[in-house]
Amino acid sequence: MISGWIVNFGAGFATDPMHELAQHNPNLSAMFIDPQGVRGKHPPHRGVHFVHEAASPVNLCSVLLKGGLACSPPGSLATPIDFVKVDIDSFDCALAKAVLRLARPMAVWIEANIAVPPPVRFSRQWDSRFYEATQQVSSFGRTPATFGCSTSAAVALFHEEGYGLFGSDDQDLVFVRRDLTTHVGEIGIDEFLCHRAILSARTSISFVRNALVAEWLDGDASESLRNIWCNFTVHDYLLGLDGMPFAMSV
Asked: Which terminal residue of the chain has fewer beta carbons within 10 Å of its beta carbon, N or C?
């Protein structure tokens, strides 16, 4: 059953395609969650709710409630969600996992940290200090490289939850529930090919030097794991992010 609900975490720009989807489908209800609000023009829509707050695995239910979706015991949503987008530039996979504990959306868009190639699984873990720390870094014109989760980390997480990789949308990975195969076709495409396709469509990555990205992409998996871990650990120390957890494996 389709509920007509879209929830967009990290919906800071009016150019976000989820805004357009809601704007052109007046029967949909949409929630746009971003601590900085929405930058750019966004025409009013009776079904659109804005929540100016940073969502996390800890406050997820309270944030959703502010936008009109109540969590009902024992932790499920009273109203289903059809589509979810997660692009918060921090602990994206941790938040996505928390969302999937409450809802079973048909499709999920999640931004990938495309600097980290398959099969390396990198995932920033939730830490209450991370948002404020990265805002300070960003104020100096730097984009922290250790955000979000890699392609392989996202694929592994969503596979456990019953979703398969369906494709990509710019830097976002698109996952679809496996029980919808008869409606949308093949679910579970090759993560290596998908990752390379995303990279080939971009001339550069702003937060990691191209030479490092190429080295990690073409190197032995174990060696790439060691090099990325070393670079990311030093990176976090220099930017004052040390002590804030991330997970990495092959």
From this structure: N
CA atoms within 13 A on the CB side of 156: 16
Query: Would residue 249 be called left, alpha or beta, if left means φ above 0 and alpha means ψ between -120 and 50 degrees?
Result: beta
CA pair distance 9, 22, nearest whole angstrom:
14
Question: pTM to 2 decimals?
Answer: 0.92
126: exposed, middle or buried (C-beta count within 10 Å: 0-12, 13-18, 19+)? middle
DSSP state of 196: H
pLDDT tens sequence across 183-235: 998 899 999 999 999 999 987 888 899 999 999 999 999 999 999 999 999 99
Residues contacting 155, CB < 8 A, separation 6+: 118, 165, 173, 191
User: DSSP H helical segments within 14-122, as ranges?
Assistant: 17-23, 60-66, 92-102
Q: Strands (DSSP E) along the chain, which ranges? A: 5-9, 29-33, 48-51, 71-72, 76-77, 83-86, 107-111, 121-124, 163-169, 172-177, 246-249
Q: How confident is the model over 151-170, as pLDDT tens digits?
A: 999 999 999 999 999 999 88
